[in-house]
Write a structure and sequence with these properties.
single chain; HIT family, subunit A; 3-stranded mixed β-sheet; 15 strands; 7 helices; alpha+beta
């Protein structure tokens, strides 16, 4: 955008609309990332001395453990719930599924972006092991991995952790993305995400041999980014060792640069992929949480982004050389 007028952009991934409002991307004040657990670590349920290994532990890596996966004590979905469907005016699916929490480190103050490559790969390989296990369960059609960091990102516990949810159906944004990817492939005989890497040239954050990181054309959040593999991969299990390393290093790099640009901030990232959908393209979306959602987002499902993606890409590239 060369002028200072706002622009309504359509997301090629989902078909949703975003209002890009330039000229309001001033550096925000450093955000307070609240962590009640930091005030008294005895209250944190993920500490080595407090985690409920008897009732909750699913697996751990190393001894003493460096990564642990536990059942979510307050799950949205439950594997003991019978899978039932209700159709008609009131349509519903029973809350069948699985919630797990991957505790990234026994140390409360460790940061995801501070992991070395070996530890990052331990995190990713543990996720892969759990996804494989969950996809093997009856009726599971989609496994989603996401990380909430900071109070504005929805994290209720400060100890570093990642969440895994296994669903009986593909719902919401992944369903829309898969439908659009399939339609695009049928019409253009190419993958929409691989084409995005070629077409998003003015919004490329960085490229390596195996991956590309972009600020999507219709970013919903200021500083939103997306990491994609250059090779067509639909499922995390199918990543090569080089792709794994470049993904974890790229994800940490984005978080580190965003801290330089925006100060300490809450964020979310989500891994988009599916084992059965071969035409879907694996990607990771990261959203800094620099502002709260308001009426237009909640009432119209139209997001307002106050930082032009092209400007974010420019600022990112200016800062990334110092990482």
């Amino acid at each position: 955008m060369d002028n200072q007028n706002s622009e309504i952009r359509k997301d090629y991934r989902t078909g949703h609309y975003v209002v890009i409002v330039p000229g309001r991307d001033h550096r925000p004040k450093e955000l307070e990332v609240e962590d009640e657990g930091a005030k008294n670590l005895k209250n944190c349920p993920f500490e080595p001395d407090t985690v409920d290994r008897i009732n909750l532990e699913i697996m751990h890596v190393n001894e003493p453990w460096t990564t642990m996966v536990i059942k979510n004590k307050f799950p949205e979905l439950d594997g003991f719930t019978p899978l039932e469907y209700q159709k008609g005016f009131f349509t519903s699916i029973s809350g069948y599924g699985y919630n797990e929490v991957l505790i990234e480190s026994p140390k409360h103050y460790d940061k995801f972006e501070g992991m070395d490559t070996k530890k990052s790969l331990e995190w990713l390989n543990t996720l892969i092991e759990r996804e494989e296990a969950l996809y093997s369960r009856n009726y599971i059609k989609h496994v989603m991995v996401f990380k909430n960091y900071g109070a504005s990102g929805g994290a209720s516990i400060g100890h570093p952790h990642t969440q895994i949810i296994a669903w009986p159906e593909i719902l919401g944004i992944p369903e829309i993305e898969i439908e659009n990817a399939n339609a695009y492939l049928k019409e253009n005989n190419s993958c929409i995400y691989e084409d995005a890497i070629k077409k998003e040239s003015s919004r490329i954050l960085f490229e390596t041999e195996k991956i590309a990181a972009i600020a999507p054309y219709s970013s919903r959040f200021a500083g939103e980014s997306m990491i994609l593999t250059k090779r067509h991969v639909n499922y995390i299990m199918d990543l090569s060792q080089d792709e794994k390393e470049e993904i974890v290093e790229g994800l940490k790099k984005i978080i580190q640069v965003n801290k330089k640009l925006f100060g300490e901030q809450s964020y979310n990232f989500v891994i988009h992929e599916n084992k059965a959908e071969k035409d879907y393209h694996m990607h990771i979306e990261l959203y800094p949480r620099l502002s709260d959602l308001a009426g237009i987002e909640l009432g119209q499902d139209v997001f307002v982004n106050t930082m032009v993606p092209e400007e974010y890409a420019k600022k990112f590239k200016e800062e990334v050389t110092s990482i």
